[in-house]
Amino acid sequence: MKDLVVLVADRNMEAAVRTLIEKRHKSLGIRQVQEDVFVHQERDAGVFLKAHIFLQPFRNEYRYALVMFDHDGCGQENRSADELASEVKQRLEQSGWQGRCEVIVIEPELEAWVWCPSPHVPKVLGLTPEQVQQILSRFPKNHLGKPKRPKEAMEECLRQAKIPRSSSIYAELAETVGLKNCVEPSFVKFRQTLQKWFP
């Protein structure tokens, strides 16, 4: 039996999650894990509605299942992320993953994980720290002091650096950025879940 199956909403999430689990397990405080990461072709809405259907055939092949999608774009933005996570988890448990699954809904989207205080972020985005600060100053902030529209902020940085968006950027960020300062609730849940399953 393999350790973990992960279902995510897109290639960027796949790149980030795979890199974190495979290359940063020590920083996450977990042992090495045998994992497979799958991307749902119907993206966030598909993961929300059909994660239990997608993962049911794997329930005897893996010890644990982790499901991840963005709150923005899942078609249920009027409901809270916690509510959506509970609903998806309940469906997973009813389809054979009882006590062996977790669901992470990232608010508003994966790019919220990018904006933590690290010198590596500007470097990967091809800008100086000053340029990044200048761009971020134009975006309204949330209670954590991060841009409320993290994806637009990241796209603006890449546009100014003339770097095309690609999942390799997410892999590079996941590989280089320090994890200790990442207080994004969905990231904290991600790390704690893995620590509980794979100490």
* Beta strands, count: 4
Question: What percent of the residues sit in helical stretches (DSSP H or I)?
Answer: 40-55%
Mean pLDDT: 97
What are the secondary-structure elements, in order, as H or E? EHHEHEHEHHHHH
Descriptive account of the structure:
The structure is a single chain. With 199 residues, the chain is of the alpha/beta class. Helix content is 48%, strand content 14%. It has nine helices and four strands. The protein has helices spanning 11-23, 25-28, 43-55, 81-97, 120-124, 129-136, 150-161, 167-176, 185-197, and strands at 2-8, 35-39, 62-70, 101-106. It has a four-stranded parallel beta sheet with strand order 2-1-3-4. Helix 4 (81-97) links the parallel strand 3 (62-70) and strand 4 (101-106). Helix 1 runs parallel beside helix 8 (167-176) and helix 3 packs parallel to helix 4 (81-97). The model has no long low-confidence stretch (mean pLDDT 97).
